[in-house]
Amino acid sequence: MKNKDYLWLNLRDLPYFRAMLRAVEAEFYQKFELPSPTLDLGCGDGHFASITFDRKLEVGLDPWSGPIHQAASGGGYRSLVQGDGGRMPFTDGYFASALSNSVLEHIPQVQTVLPELRRVLKPGSQFLFCVPNPRYLSELSVPAILGRIGLSGVGQAYTRWFQRMSRVEYAVWPDVWQKWLENAGFQLEKWWHYFSPASMRMLEWGHYLGAPTLLPHVLFKRWIIAPWRWNLFLTERLVRQHAVAQPDPDGTFTFYVARRI
Q1: CA distance 158 to 167
Q2: Which tens digits make up the pLDDT trace of 83-120?
């Protein structure tokens, strides 16, 4: 389908801070052809794939049973597998392409997962992924505010808390990812930063402003009870300026294009 409104498709289902980031990332994937069979490493609840791609991806893999069961109803995959990314139940060279959207930063043993991913990819296969970089933490607004009033120590504690709360194990620069990829048998072809510091601060505050969506999610398994434009009109107007899919040299996230050697 051409000319999808990725912001709206995400905003009707997700808290705004997740919707605007996912909308940007979904747009980036449209630049690439992913040959079949495709692996989605860390597919989660499958929402991203169901919105982003116009075909069912062949396999979604995730270690957690809850998200896998949610993904089964989303229609984004031909097959779903609950499994460990460090020990995948596939033969050598099974997949022709792979992606991992905002997942690798959450995996403590990521340097074990990358060689295993190489094993299950055909030679020459493309691997697309995106992760936060150090600006994800350095551009937070609360530490900056606290620093201006002489509470830098409290600000540093907040940064550490925010990193734990968002379960981010790694927020590193491309040179580190390049080293990890090369050690695992990949070539890093290109990368770009995206999601401006201002957008990151919108995301940061969304964790707090989006708290009311927790109750309907617990009760009804839905983040948004009234997913209609009249209900989300003001939210959409507020966040659309931040859902711009273009590189930003000061961006707080980084999109990577790698190839299996």
Answers
A1: 14
A2: 999 999 999 999 999 999 999 999 999 999 999 999 99
Q: Which residues contact 58 (CB under 8 A, 6 or more apart)?
A: 36, 37, 38, 39, 77, 78, 79, 95
Model pTM?
0.93
Give the C-alpha separation, 251 to 191, whole Å: 12
In angstroms, rounded to a whole number, what is the distance separating the alpha carbons of residues 175 and 80? 33
User: What DSSP string runs through 32-95?
Assistant: ---PSSEEEET-TTSHHHHHH-SS-EEEEEES-HHHHHHHHTTT-EEEEEE--TTS-SS-TT-E
DSSP class of residue 105 equals G
The answer to which of 15-29, 151-165, 200-214 has the lowest mean pLDDT is 200-214
Contact between 177 and 113 under an 8 Å Cβ cutoff? The reply is no
Residues near 227 by Cβ (< 8 Å), separated by ≥ 6? 12, 13
In this structure, whether the domain defined by 6-132+168-260 belongs to CATH 3.30.565.10 is answered with: no
User: Where are the domains positioned within the chain?
Assistant: 6-132+168-260
